[in-house]
Amino acid sequence: MIDKREILLVVDKAEDGMTTLDFLRLHGFSKRAVNVLKTSGGLTRRGEILRTVDRLSAGDEVKMAFWEQGSEIAPNPALHADVVFENEDYVIFDKPPLMPTHPSLYHYDDTLANLFAAKYPTLTFRPLNRLDLGTSGLCVCAKNKPAAAGVAVHKTYYAAVSGEIAEGGTVCAPIGRTGNSIIKREVRPDGKFAETLYKPVLVKNGRTLLEISLKTGRTHQIRIHMAHIGFPLIGDEMYGGDCSVLHSQALHCGKAEFLDKLSGEQISAESILPEYIERLFL
User: Fold this and answer.
1) Fewer CB in 10 Å around end: N or C, the chain?
2) Which residues contact 39 (CB under 8 A, 6 or more apart)?
3) From 132, 190, 236, 260, active-site residue
């Protein structure tokens, strides 16, 4: 099966005289997306093929057609994750903990990608933010190429850490690989710049629930930075967390917000704090 997504843009007065290429780039379409349109014949005006060098006039209707043919990811209809938002171009899942985002050597058919393949057999899985295996919460997925291009998702996370933190702060510490490890990371001078903002929202039982936002998006950034300042995430065995009450990191993506560039709509979604983190503060 093949899925088709058509997008119609109208040239306004300020765009009169622009080349089609400049017009498309102005509206956020990447060079790769433009090349796909050119080679597939999916770029038209008044029913005729439109070249990227052609100039446009105010009032012109530029139609773009993208075809999706699905992927080779094995569908698994037995999996479940709540859908908290959906439109023609995006779907936001509330991923449960211990569900991987992508298939891997040890997780071939139990991932969010397998669920997506079952729900949308004609579409390609394009997550715009990726959550670690043990991290729960919101995962934004684009349903087509133009929806995925150039979209920045602002996320707010909630983490339960050991120890009491009275005030918010910022961690700026570079992150790089630990030795030859494929997975583990650490703070190291030759690492990549990383910045994490945090503030306490609940302090109880010798633990703190933090609200966290990221200025950068390094692998395991929150987990590494909180351990670096002496407050490892509860359940995070890899980075020194207390695993006596939880066996995966207490980390949840609770808010996601981004601009839908195709509609101009600001999209936001929320996920309530899951029970497995709530019970740490009872």
Assistant:
1) C
2) none
3) 132
